[in-house]
Amino acid sequence: xxxxxxxxxxxxxxxxxxxxxxxxxxxxxxxxxxxxxxxxxxxxxxxxxxxxxxxxxxxxxxxxxxxxxxxxxxxxxxxxxxxxxxxxxxxxxxxxxxxxxxxxxxxxxxxxxxxxxxxxxxxxxxxxxxxxxxxxxxxxxxxxxxxxxxxxxxxxxxxxxxxxxxxxxxxxxxxxxxxxxxxxxxxxxxxxxxxxxxxxxxxxxxxxxxxxxxxxxxxxxxxxxxxxxxxxxxxxxxxxxxxxxxxxxxxxxxxxxxxxxxxxxxxxxxxxxxxxxxxxxxxxxxxxxxxxxxxxxxxxxxxxxxxxxxxxxxxxxxxxxxxxxxxxxxxxxxxxxxxxxxxxxxxxxxxxxxxxxxxxxxxxxxxxxxxxxxxxxxxxxxxxxxxxxxxxxxxxxxxxxxxxxxxxxxxxxxxxxxxxxxxxxxxxxxxxxxxxxxxxxxxxxxxxxxxxxxxxxxxxxxxxxxxxxxxxxxxxxxxxxxxxxxxxxxxxxxxxxxxxxxxxxxxxxxxxxxxxxxxxxxxxxxxxxxxxxxxxxxxxxxxxxxxxxxxxxxxxxxxxxxxxxxxxxxxxxxxxxxxxxxxxxxxxxx
Length: 590
Hints:
Blueprint lengths: L1 E2 L2 E2 H51 L1 E2 L5 E4 L2 E6 L2 E4 L9 E2 L10 E3 L4 E3 L2 E3 L8 E4 L2 E3 L4 E4 L4 E2 L5 H9 L8 E2 L2 E4 L6 E2 L6 E3 L4 E3 L2 E3 L8 E2 L7 E3 L4 E3 L2 E3 L7 E4 L8 E4 L4 E4 L2 E2 L8 E3 L10 E4 L2 E6 L4 E6 L8 E2 L4 E3 L3 E16 L2 E18 L3 E7 L5 E6 L2 E6 L11 E4 L2 H9 L5 H9 L3 E3 L3 E9 L5 H71 L6 H11 L9 H24 L1
Antiparallel strand pairs: 1-2, 3-4, 4-5, 5-6, 7-8, 8-9, 9-10, 11-12, 12-13, 13-16, 14-15, 17-18, 18-19, 19-20, 21-22, 22-23, 23-24, 25-26, 26-27, 27-28, 29-30, 30-31, 31-32, 33-34, 34-35, 35-36, 36-42, 37-38, 38-39, 39-40, 40-41
Helix pairs in contact: 5-7
């Protein structure tokens, strides 16, 4: 269909090509933008790294502190990165050096006190004093200033990238926490209890109030741990009161290099992990695997079963029935016995192979702690402690000899029990007093010690769901692109549909106008014709014969000289027809 000389089908085809071209340009633009962002991000990281190295190599360090002066600016080297101090008075800048390593993170100028690169409000730098245990005062205000940094809340990958790209400023991932203590009394640190201070009545942990803590009877559960303590009534984890009975038999237990430390009440058999309390209906618990180098976490035996803490569900779980008969005794940290059998504890992970376009990758299915039986203990005889049991032990069963390891996986000894298959190695183990990890590793590598597997009778298993973060990201990314494309196409279709409706309406309007004009001009033509006929008739003469008519027609013909003048020809034809009609009418009257 044509309107105003334009073919609509050709117009639609042009619009479709334009839409496709816009989509292609959009895709290319998005790709270019992402590529440029990536290059910019990498360049920015590289540039920051080079600048940090320049400061570390050529800057002037302030004694043992984290502060460095470089090209007239002050920086702090902390959190594994370097940050500039803002609005610092360089001429009056100095570190707060009291000889305590905790103060290496603090500095002052004439106006401010700095913790790392953070300005601490309400502290007078000219009157600043250390109270011990990370507490400070200017004689009026009291603060806890931590030397242990924490990760800031909004440090997602997107926020870091946004800081780099949009704001051209690196976002600080870590900072040193601080807390102002609201007290009108003089504050002082509590001796031998790090992070604790008192105003004589109230007790504070890292600046936070511990409700109902008794200052006179307050003690640490373990001198090497700063988070657990107790008084005559209560047991505390940081500022939280635990559902534990206070007594002198509290201890902290863990495996040798474990992620978690448990509070254990040896008197009542109660267990707690920070604020999480194990179910009291199963007490008393007995701890299995304390200081073990072959398991990644502890197990807890109860008359109602074997329990463990599932780090994925964040809850206590039951591994199975209690398999032990009578009293459980520790032989080594990973080897135990009851009244009948000998067992060992061993951690292992289960993976499955997943095929990718580049080959195979290992996917973690579960982390497991197994209890393996070595059979009845009456058949086993201990021969020797190696290095007082620190390295391991030699045992005999029948005419075979075995090595029980106490070094563990961090000493690259993977298994707990090995059969000694070489007589020279057996003799060396029996006759040499000081044997360390190098010797055991060499024996294992040379296959003079062969790993021995017992029967697995109980398993504490933490199952993992396969991570699909990468796939999800790609799906979301491409889904977003497809959605954007679909939205663009939809909007284009909507606009095209809207334009088409407008076009159809215009066509209808034009058709109505054409119809109206046709009717109007037809009516006018008829009126003009009738008037012309009447005029011709009134002007026509009466003709008596055909010869006279011919003569009259001959007179009319020369008047129309231009035969392209259709309108003129039409008028003359009408005159001729009128003359003939008038002649015929006269003839009939005669």
